[in-house]
Every structure is written in C-alpha cells, then in structure tokens.
Recover the amino acids of this structure.
C-alpha cells in the first residue's frame, strides 16, 4: 500500500505541500483533483522523488518501507511509475530499444516483442514508432499514449498519471482510458489519476476522489464527488467547506 503521513514539502524555500495525509491500497484507483496551483503535480513529483521537492516533514511509506528519501531510480525499481504531464523528448533513443532496455529484463525477445506489439495495438500506436526517437516530433496525444505504453510494459505496482487526459481528443481519451482499465484488471496495482477535469473519470471510475487545495487535501469522497465538481465547480464546493479561492494569475511555476 501507499501511505503518506503529514507531508510538508517546499520548493526553493516556499512551502507548497502543507500536511498531506493520504493512503491507497492495492487494487484501488484514486483521483486527485483541484484547481490550478493547488499542489497536485507537486504531490506526484514528491512521491516520485524529484530532488527539487524538499520534504520538510512527514513520511512516504510504500509496501511498509519508508521511501521518503530514496532517489527516483530506487523508487522506480521498487515499483513506482509516473506518467508526466509534459513528457520529455529523448533524442537519439528509439522507443523500441528504450523499452527493451528498461522492461526486457531476462525475457525472451520474441515474447517481449509479441507483448510490445499487442500493447501498441491496444493504444493504436503505429508500428513504425518503435524506431522513432522517444516523443521527438510526437503530437500531444501520441506522447500521452507513449507514456501509457511504458506503464503497460513496466508493470509497476503504483502508477501515478499526472494530467494524462490533457491534450487528448475524445478518441484518444477513450483509447488511453481503456488501456488504464486493462492495467487495473490486475488487482495488485494502485493507480492515482491527477486531473483538473472529471471527463477521464467518466471512463475510469475511481474508488476515491480527493480535492487538494492550497497544498492540503481538503475533501475526499467516492466517485460522486467528481460529478459534484463537474456540476458546481471548485469555487462553490470549496466555499461550502470554508475555503476561499483567490483570483490570481496562474503561472507555469504555480502549476508545477
């Protein structure tokens, strides 16, 4: 399981997470929602171990082990995966060779290749993409599908999907959602979906929905909370529970 206890995190001396408490069991899907700049992506990066995010207080426990100060590669080897909101281009590294290197292990290449092509077909990724450099010249939707392809091949225990629905048209959203649902058929997995909007949750029904605001989880509920967000909006819901959204210009730094 994943357990986060009273987590406080700062970036460049500014506190951005202010006491996060959260837990998820194997077999569960959680959605973390909230307005821009509320701390959603910051929580994802902190769980993954991005060194920019300094843990000031609290702990992150994964499968009973304290991973609060592990390096990102150590967390990845422990079974944690992060699909980026803005996937990076990796020039000079073909997608097929990359996935064989990180996910091939001691497997027979023919077996790996068969599964690889099955997953590409599920995500409707053309076969010629195996020879293309990772994300170089890819559209936004192609990049997001490539992120999910990596998840399917790596088979992590914990998959964090940061704004995986942003930039997707309706058809791509359905394709990505179906792939995530296939991944969750294995009840040994935990999936955390970070999103602004409830539309992906029309296809992937979470067990729990959490609203994060000003660096804290301020409200949790079942799937119906996502419907309430869509109907009322964040401002009305936050006001009802005693929080006030300030009107301010959102910068890229706030979002990340």
């Amino acid at each position: 399981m994943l357990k986060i206890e009273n987590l406080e995190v700062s970036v460049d001396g500014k506190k951005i997470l202010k006491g996060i408490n959260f837990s998820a069991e194997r077999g569960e899907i959680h959605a973390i929602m909230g307005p821009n700049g509320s701390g959603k992506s910051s929580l994802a990066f902190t769980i993954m171990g991005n060194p920019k995010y300094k843990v000031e207080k609290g702990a992150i426990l994964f499968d009973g082990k304290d991973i609060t100060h592990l390096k990102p590669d150590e967390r990845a080897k422990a079974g944690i995966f992060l699909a980026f909101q803005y996937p990076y281009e990796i020039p000079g590294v073909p997608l097929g060779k990359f996935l064989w290197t990180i996910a091939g292990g001691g497997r027979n290449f023919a077996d790996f290749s068969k599964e690889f092509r099955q997953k590409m077909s599920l995500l409707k990724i053309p076969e010629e993409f195996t020879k293309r450099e990772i994300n170089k010249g890819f559209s936004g939707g192609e990049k997001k599908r490539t992120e999910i392809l990596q998840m399917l091949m790596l088979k992590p225990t914990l998959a964090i999907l940061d704004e995986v629905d942003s930039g997707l048209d309706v058809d791509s959203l359905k394709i990505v959602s179906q792939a995530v649902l296939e991944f969750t058929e294995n009840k040994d997995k935990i999936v955390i979906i970070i999103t602004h909007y409830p539309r992906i949750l029309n296809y992937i029904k979470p067990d729990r929905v959490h609203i994060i605001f000003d660096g804290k989880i301020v409200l949790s509920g079942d799937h119906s909370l996502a419907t309430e967000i869509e109907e009322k909006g964040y401002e009305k819901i936050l006001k009802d529970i005693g929080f006030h959204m300030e009107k301010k210009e959102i910068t890229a730094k706030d979002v990340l």
User: Anything to note?
Assistant: DSSP finds nine helices and twelve strands in the chain. The two ends are 26 Å apart (CA to CA). Confidence is low (pLDDT under 50) at residues 248-256. Residues 2-235 form a domain with the Rossmann fold fold (CATH 3.40.50.300).
